[in-house]
Amino acid sequence: MGNLTSSDQPRTDHVLPKHLGGGPLNLGDPDDRSLRKVEKDILILNMVRDRVHKEKCSAEAAKLDKCGGEAGLLVTFKCGKEKDELIECSKRWFHDEGLRNECTEEFLKQRSYYRRTGKPGYLHNQEEKETSGLPQFAAQ
User: Fold this and answer.
1) How far apart are the C-alpha atoms of 122 and 83, rounded to whole Å?
2) Residue 45 and residue 62: Cα distance in Å, rounded?
3) pLDDT tens, residue by residue, 27-85
4) Coil, strand, or helix at residue 33?
5) Can you tell me the distance from the alpha carbon of 33 to that of 109, in angstroms, rounded to the nearest whole number?
6) Packing angle between helix 58-71 and helix 80-94, nearest 10 degrees?
7) Contact 14/21 with Cβ under 8 angstroms?
8) Mean per-residue pLDDT over the chain, rounded
9) Coil, helix or strand for 118?
């Protein structure tokens, strides 16, 4: 019981380092563009991987899916060409700096939106689409 205090003062120590706190909701500075290791090595690369499979190599993935559906349990033996095409396409795009930079910018926008509003970052894109379709009227 040596670590407990009986004072009525609020605690001033925080779990997060000071540079990760702050901002309007104490979720971090919305304008901070620095990236932690986990953000660079995991979160952004997951965004890259998702975009590669959904956008850049969707034709190759569809070919492999079709072949796999037809081959059934023999997919390993019958669909080697399609698998190799998907892997080559994925490698090409996964190491593309332009795509990585796009995903990094998108991640920073989503993180900034979360830190500003407390809402999940993916809602940033939905709200952006909703407001972009509206005509811009001058405030009267």
Assistant:
1) 31
2) 22
3) 878 888 889 999 999 999 999 999 999 999 999 999 999 999 998 888 888 999 999 99
4) coil
5) 9
6) 160
7) yes
8) 81
9) coil
Q: What six digits make up the tokens of 95?
A: 């190491």
**pLDDT reported for residue 19:** 58
- Residue bearing the bigger pLDDT, 19 or 59: 59
Where is 116: in which H helix or E strand?
Answer: helix 97-117
What gap in Å lies between CA 87 and CA 54, rounded to an integer?
14
Q: Which amino acid is at 3?
A: N
Q: What burial class does residue 67 get, using C-beta atoms within 10 Å of its C-beta: 0-12 exposed, 13-18 middle, 19+ buried?
A: middle
DSSP letter string, 66-96: HHHHHHGGGHHHH-HHHHHHHHHHHHHHHT-
Residue type, 123: L
